[in-house]
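Next up, sample data.

:::
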Amino acid sequence: MDQKFYDAVESNPVIAAVKDFEGLDRCCQVEDIKVVFILFGDVCSIDGIVRKIHESGKIAMVHMDLIVGLSSKEISVDFIKNNTYADGIISTKPTLIKRGGELGLYTVLRFFVLDSRALRNVEMMDHQYAGVRPDFIEVLPGVMPKIIRRICKTSKIPVIAGGLISDKEDVMGALSAGAISVSSTNQNVWFL
């Protein structure tokens, strides 16, 4: 794992996840925000979004699954690296995370833990996804301290809690359970 990325996530335990231009503008004005998860855009606008984040001195992470016009093929990761100069990617697709790592991008593998089977997939990640070593895993929803604690105990990869984080209690619950940080689109959480 790249130490710069780890330090940026650890130094401010709240990651701004932006889903529109309003959120983008606001997070770029907040000095304490070091990392931005981009959850919107399309192939025509993503380079400008990344540029704005870089101009504000922040790390830009593109959620590959949410950018309109990108396919789920590895070549999309090459496009993001070569045409937007994003720092990294987020995806639920291990093949994209693997390609991002090969290209030297920061990577976050996102898991939706909706039932015991999904939880088992997270816990068995090292065995199920050979060759895939994300910098972080993101667990959604992030308001499950008991489950986050269980994942943190079994995972060799640092955990980010995301989804449904809406107040200080949610943030503290996730961090107390072992998550290194939380990601949230809720702008009030960015200022906790």
About this structure: Strands lie at 14-18, 35-38, 59-63, 88-91, 106-112, 136-140, 159-162, 181-184. The chain has a mean pLDDT of 95.
